[in-house]
Description:
Helices cover 44% and strands 14% of the residues. The protein is of the alpha/beta class.
Amino acid sequence: MNDTSTRYVSTRGHSDCKPFCDILLDGLAPDGGLYLPKRYPTVDTATLGRWRQVYHRQGYADLAFEILSLYIDDIPPADLRALCHKAYTALVFGTGEIVPLRHLENGLWIQALSNGPTLAFKDVAMQLLGHLFEYELARRGETLNILGATSGDTGSAAEYAMRGKRGVRVFMISPQGRMSDFQQAQMFSLTDANIFNISVDGVFDDCQDVVKAISSDADFKRDYKIGMVNSINWARLLAQVVYYFAGYFQATDTGTGTGTDTEPVSFAVPSGNFGNAFAGHVARQMGLPIASLVVATNENDVLDEFFKTGVYRPRGSANTLATSSPSMDISRASNFERLVFDLQGRDPAATRQLFADTLVHAGQFDLSLHPAFGDLAARYGFVSGKSLHSDRIATIQDTYERHGMMIDPHTACAVKVAHEYRQPGVPMIVFETALPAKFAQTLIEATGRSPDRPARFDGLENRPRRIHMMPADAGTIMAFIAEHANGCR
């Protein structure tokens, strides 16, 4: 394993190289860029072998500590390990494996990432993030007002992770009418004093634009201590890297807790804001032998278009479709900037030119002639595909009829696209990103029956709700935050 700096830089070149805990609380860089480590630490097969034993013998929390400690040097190791053990327990996730694999057929696996409190993969990172925030704020004697945007699952995962946390308030912006009934009820029924749900007339991209606009106001961000929980925040994305390693160790296990640690594995990832897929890129850069990273999109196929043509053409709100996989109804994936930064040799000036200039004025950019694009699949493993509603219905139906397994529409999207890229002898792991209970209407359409839901969610849709309706306007939402903020000036 090589040495690496644990300082972080902005994709757009902000000069300060910051430690982990500073960017944990910052979220977005001052220049509008996203934070990344100066370089990715790399691990050899001996380290992978040791981590395999850690996972099988000590558990997920200790594996998380091993990986996170390569990126975090400003939290004492004993404290970091304790935080991992607080986040990853069988009590919270219903299983000591935290993210177990289920075999579907012929080397095709489903990795269950949705066993947490809100039944979505966001819980895996958000549970850790809640403990990190509480720890660091207590250490500094500070408070934080968390600002987030959600297309469905981030909001509830963040709110359930932050509810009752000392020194933290959450302001979560969601698009009105663009989430499933379950997702809306799950968020809006929370009545904790530190949780504020804001619903705006628009799509997720509008919500995300408001978050970025507020976070780019340096004075407001400083005065009202604004932090972020979207995957714009590197800490959340970093936590997602861990389950790639856990999935790999399970898929290549010989049954005795051992493996070759050189055998390739592919991952299929339902993608909206691209954080989950980018975490796989980080794992691959670290040395995890990933053959392909299959990016699965729905009808909002901006990323699929890029990976196939080199043209990045985000759509406006009016052209972002409402689909049966609503958490992926995103046309401007924030984390895509991180990949472009790496594609261009980590050149911040070139990245700033594309995202702060070309994209703003032309509405698109074209990297098809860039040398790195032609090398994208070979060098980085990225391939892509998309599904339509009919594809997802057919996949859900087929999976249920042939295997007796219900999967949600986002996972179905990834299963459908995964079949297009399977390679003989290479296990394909599909990320389950939510439990079917969150999307009952689509499951009934596909299978004729309603999916089971945990008893704690019985009657969820009938619970009282607390929600604030607002326009998708940064100024209006800033005034609301200022009125209700924690630790304001």
